[in-house]
Write a structure and sequence with these properties.
alpha/beta; single chain; Rossmann fold; 2 domains; binds ligand 1PR; 30 strands
Length: about 525
């Protein structure tokens, strides 16, 4: 029997809504800690955390939460830390040199040191090192959702509950008495995550040891993402639409493929590893004036327990009354409404153009501000490139590739031009240079669309995807053109992207997500 109430430590950053929704699903009431007494009087404390170690410690200190939290933990009372809620238990972090952590567990937090993509984003497994009721009813085959660039390094392995492998084994959860904490996100790990919350809440249960100790090495799964392009149609209804090479109108009308919240719920049930919403007219409408996407996120996050990304219109804006909102304000609203990641499109192109022209990182761009506060992993860059054919590698001052698909006049070379405003305007910037600069500025992931392939069902543009993913160390999501299950296998076999995204084939129910997964599994691609 799960207890009726838990206290949630909300220090003001990140997506706490998903944690509240997940625990609420189990029939539990969630009290938000408003002051030091709420912490000290809690029966069970859940501390989610997204973002930056330094920011979190500053927020805890500023709110006067540090001392009561330390007191609570030193009394060995039930605590579930998630992500940063795990990391702050340690002495310090490379992410914020000189900032002391809570110092409850001896050890430090270090950045992943690997040639593999960092952040470590996606679904990975657990290897139990000790028995725990937190792992009750799990078999060791399950995967949970991770998103982080830093991991804890305890002084002693005795505190480690599970290890996970990514380049090397790292501690993916810890247990010290009644204190447990996970690097992964149960609130984003579907039904299994809810199971884990239930296990935490059932304090009377004994470990049932269904998960064997010291299982085999775990592997990060390739992700399959469902994307919903959202906009208002001419009648003013918010609809999921889909373009052919970005043209979303058919017979003059905006195509209507369904309702955003309903479709997102369906994709979650069908096994999507993530759901992405793109407000495709976001460059026109300012999200904080026109709030429907915020409502879509709030409603979706009530029932969808996998990561949600939202894009469209994330930039600074001055309204008609002269009030200026920063991109950080917009992102903050989205995170509070249930988003785990925000995606920046047009604004990123302008930022990179300025950065390449001046060579200066101003620290004030949306990419820098949002990644500094919420962590790199929270910032996805959605880029909309289009092929430009040229006759030789020297014909354009860009990253030119030799192509196996010659142009209309037999051109054997091309570069990929970045566009803004949903492909309406081309810029003098190529996608490879752009992606590198975004990484340099702090982006955590690239969502790589391709206007030429969008909606064509002709397969991903492998040449584009390889060029960009070879140029950056952050994860790349391949997008545009998926038409069959084989296209997914092809993109994972021919490039080292971490995720593949599709829209049209899912909306039109031509290819179900489970068929994609089954094909990938047969081909030996690791999936969830
Ligand atoms: O510029 O920050 O306001 O963000 C606007 C966002 O909206 C950008 O991420 C941009 O990619 C997106 N967008 C703008 N116009 C369109 C359009 O279609 N007219 N959609 C658009 C982008 C591409 C993918 C699509 C894949 C897969 N759509 O989202 O889902 O191509 O499609 P497929 O599997 O059917 O081939 P900002």
């Amino acid at each position: 029997m799960a207890p009726k109430a838990v206290t949630l430590l909300d220090y003001g950053a990140g997506n706490v809504r998903s944690v509240v929704n997940a625990i609420g699903k189990l029939g539990c009431t969630v009290h938000m800690a408003q002051n030091a007494d709420d912490i000290l009087n809690a029966d069970k404390l859940v501390c989610p955390g997204v973002g930056d170690f330094g920011h979190m410690m500053t927020a805890l200190n500023d709110k006067g939460y540090t001392a009561p939290l330390k007191a609570y933990l030193r009394q060995d009372r039930p605590y579930l830390g998630i992500c940063l809620g795990l990391q702050v238990l340690f002495d310090s972090s490379e992410e914020a040199p000189g900032v002391p952590g809570l110092g409850i567990i001896p050890g430090t937090v270090k950045r992943f040191s690997t040639e593999l993509s960092v952040p470590h984003i996606g679904w990975n497994g657990l290897r139990a090192r000790q028995s725990s009721r937190l792992l009750n009813d799990l078999t060791g085959q399950e995967k949970f959702y991770f998103v982080h660039s830093f991991h804890v390094v305890p002084d002693s392995d005795s505190v480690v509950l599970t290890f996970t492998d990514y380049a090397y084994a790292f501690a993916s959860s810890v247990q010290v008495g009644n204190i447990v904490a996970t690097q992964f996100h149960p609130e984003k790990s579907g039904q299994l995550g809810l199971q884990l919350f239930r296990n935490f809440l059932e304090t009377d249960a004994q470990p049932n040891n269904t998960m064997p100790l010291h299982g085999p090495a775990t592997q990060l799964a390739k992700r399959v993402i469902a994307c919903l392009d959202v906009r208002s149609n001419d009648a003013g209804d918010l609809v999921v639409t889909k373009g052919d090479q970005y043209d979303v109108r058919e017979g003059g009308e905006v195509r209507n493929l369904g309702k955003p919240v309903e479709l997102a719920g369906r994709y979650y049930q069908e096994g999507a590893d993530e759901v992405t919403f793109l407000n495709i007219t976001g460059f026109r409408d300012f999200p904080l004036e026109d709030m429907p996407m915020i409502e879509v996120l709030k409603q979706t996050s009530e029932n969808v327990f996998v990561p949600l990304t939202i894009g469209g219109g994330i930039r600074a804006f001055t309204d008609k009354d002269g009030h200026t909102y920063s991109a950080l304000d917009v992102a903050h609203e989205y995170f509070r409404s249930g988003a785990d990641k925000i995606s920046i499109g047009s604004d990123a192109v302008t930022i990179v153009e300025d950065y390449l022209r001046t060579g200066i990182k101003t620290g004030t761009s949306s990419i820098e501000q949002i990644s500094r506060k919420y962590g790199n992993q929270a910032v996805v860059i959605s880029v909309d490139p289009r092929r430009v054919y040229v006759t030789s590698p020297e014909a354009a001052p860009h990253h030119v590739i030799e192509t196996a698909e010659p142009g209309p006049n037999g051109e054997r070379y091309c570069w990929y031009q970045c566009t803004v405003k949903g492909g309406r305007e081309g810029r003098d910037l190529d996608a490879v240079t752009f992606a590198r600069a975004c990484e340099d500025l702090g982006a955590g992931e690239i969502l790589l669309n391709c206007i030429d392939r969008d909606g064509t069902n002709s397969g991903f543009d492998i040449e584009l995807i390889r060029a960009v993913s070879d140029a950056v160390t952050i994860p790349v999501i391949a997008s545009s053109g998926a038409g069959t299950v084989e296209h997914f296998t092809e993109v994972f076999e021919k490039t080292d992207v971490e995720a593949a995204l599709a829209a049209g084939i899912f909306h039109r129910q031509e290819v179900p997500i489970h068929a994609v997964k089954a094909h990938l599994k047969d081909a030996g691609v690791e999936i969830r």
